[in-house]
Specification:
The protein contains 11 helices and 5 strands, in the order ααααααβββαββαααα. By secondary structure, it is mostly helical. The protein has 2 domains: 86 residues; 154 residues, hpI Integrase, Chain A (Orthogonal Bundle).
């Protein structure tokens, strides 16, 4: 349906639109449809700035469709939030445990798996047991379920395996890992989650902030930004740089090396 230059970032955005628009013609994308797409993007955990990037590409395509390609009589208005990217919200361990105490068991286990793996909500909820190897501690997410559009393999820590075992005991049958009363869970930003957030005194908090929590804990534990990018399935190094300030130790070591070199040169100049 969409035709754009060969750009991985644009292709990722278009793949997301394809998932939600499917075989609808361009003429079906009116103001109401655009508002619904914004809502779906926000539910997927995208920040206002990210939603604006998606909407900007959609606006460009609709304008070309109307003014150059003549597929449309006119291009519908695409509202933009023009929001700046906020500082990623993450929980301290004691805050996370406080949240878990207020969550029902199925959401508590989902939350624990989220902070242990960094999986986005939609990718996590689509996980099926046939893509998990508990013995070798591996899981696989197909490309169509990843934001970046690429298949993603994740190593499972001992704690992640323990959570999966509890999930299996909670739901002994069924294809999907995350279920409630025998049915697949399709959203974690539920009334139960919001009630737990309020009871724990952590408002405002989105489910997507658990992914930020995973990244923040990882960096603070000594995981490099490159390792974090691979573990969390981020498509570029620049996307994990926002967590760099949480691990200043390696910068402190670099500063010490620079200071040592500087001191040696200063001492050398003094001797002259």
């Amino acid at each position: 349906m969409f035709v754009t230059p060969s750009c991985v970032k644009d292709e990722t955005i278009i793949a997301w639109f394809e998932q939600h628009i499917k075989d609808e013609p361009l003429s079906a994308i009116d103001t109401d449809a655009i508002i619904e797409l914004r809502r779906l993007a926000e539910e997927d955990g995208m920040s206002p700035a990210t939603v604006d990037r998606y909407m900007a590409l959609l606006r460009a395509i609709l304008r070309k469709s109307a003014h150059e390609w003549r597929y449309l009589d006119h291009a519908p208005k695409v509202p933009m939030a023009h929001a700046k990217s906020p500082e990623p919200r993450w929980l301290r361990p004691e805050e996370f445990e406080r949240l878990c105490r207020h969550l029902p068991k199925h959401l508590e286990l989902a939350a624990r798996f989220a902070v242990l793996t960094g999986l986005r909500m939609r990718s996590m909820l689509a996980l099926t047991w046939d893509r998990i190897d508990l013995q070798n501690r591996r899981a696989w997410i197909p490309g169509e379920q990843m934001k970046a559009g690429r298949s993603h393999g994740i190593p499972l820590s001992t704690e992640a395996v323990r959570v999966l075992q509890q999930l299996r005991a909670l739901n002994p049958t069924g294809q999907y890992v995350f279920q409630w009363r025998g049915k697949r869970i399709d959203d974690c930003n539920t009334a139960a989650f919001k009630a737990a957030v309020k009871a724990a005194g952590l408002e405002p908090l989105r489910w997507h902030d658990l992914r930020h929590t995973f990244a923040s804990w990882a960096v603070q534990s000594g995981v490099t930004l490159h390792e974090l990018m691979l573990l969390g399935g981020w498509s570029s190094y620049s996307m994990v740089l926002r967590y760099a300030h949480l691990a200043p130790d390696h910068l402190a070591q670099a500063a010490e090396r620079v200071g040592t070199i500087g001191a040696q040169r200063v001492a050398g100049g003094t001797r002259k």
